[in-house]
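All the exercises in this workshop are built on plain-text protein records. A record pairs a protein's sequence with a compact description of its fold. The structure tokens are whole numbers drawn from a learned vocabulary of backbone shapes. Once this layout is familiar, the rest of the handout is easier to follow. An example says more than a description, so a record of this kind follows.
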Amino acid sequence: MKESIGANDKGRLDLSGWAHWPDRIWQGGAALAALGLVAGWFSGGLMDAFAATYIVAFMFYLSLVLGSLFLVLIHHLFDSYWLVPLRRLLEHLSCQAGIMGLFFVPILGIVLFGSAYAWTQPEGQDHSWHVKSIMYNPVAFTIMSALLFGVWHWLANGLRRHSLAQDNTGAAAATHAMRRYAAGGIFVFAFTLTLGAFYWMKSLEHQWFSTMYGVYYFAGSVWVTLATVYVLTLVLRRTGHLAKVVSPSTFKDIGTLFFAFTVFYAYIAFSQYFLIWNANIPEETYWYVKRDQGLWHGVGLLLIFGHFFVPFLLMLRIDAKLSLTVMIPLGAWAWLMHYTDMSFNVIPAFDWSQAGWSVKLFGLLTAVGAMALMGGALARFLLRDLAAHPPYPQRDPRNAETLNVYVEPLSARSARSSEE
């Protein structure tokens, strides 16, 4: 662990020459995604390949948005001082919910005009669909999806609006408003995230039943968000944006929470599997049976070892959470594992067993295109927001504690003055 936080901060990074790359990335991704959509329109097999890879990318980036929103909420609920320097970055990430709403439009088109979701087709409307038809129908799907994005947009932007007001005035009213948002918002967040996971990912196989699926998606979302925030915070510290407020203990705390969610995700994933295996109900077990065959058996093993054992063992040592040699590659590994996890949940719902190599190659191209399109666009808007607002809260009451500066209470000053 030669390179660590605090030991390699002599110079600052200049990212001005890289500012145009997000635009190039999303434009290239848009071209590939548009090609996939047009080609899929004229071929059922290609449309399934486009739908599968697009949904995977969408659920991946939605994880970052919702994971950031959760971290903002718990910051206000628990009044945690160490999250103060990161709050503005998390607020900007969570406010991308509106952008994700635009990226949802092709999925809505797939539901209304395609066949990826079996419950939209007459042959897929079996007994299990009739029981759940109040949820799984085009009208409910459209209304609920719009409502979910509206709620996330309102909650994230409301929190950031009061946060920016706190920067301007420093008034306690802004702090109290954010805490009120968080007090009710945490329940709204839990309910809406669960509905989103059910509607957009789980309903690809509507016959399947799991009460833990929302928590499963939540655990993976916060896990990959913490890995992403660790790397972004390091970059912003090197560029000077967060150099004054971020210390080695900040990275240790992010790493500790990342480690905790590594264990939490493994616990939820195992618990879901164990409960379904123990009950042995065909309505539940078929989902895992399908993913225990062929290539997907190896993917499942990769998730067991790569999503849990690798990060768990690497971060067991306390100093590992400050090691750039460990944490930077682990951040990239977290992205790979979370993308693999989303693929494991989505792609087996599409029967590609008889698909030729042309369809699989097309799926690979659309996967790259969808990831580049959404990732480049989100990076572009994140850079815009970072340039438009202060990089961290300016008048948060916990700033002094964050900077490890003691501020004498007014009561102590008054008492000393009266004695003198």
About this structure: The CA atoms of residues 73 and 184 lie 10 Å apart.
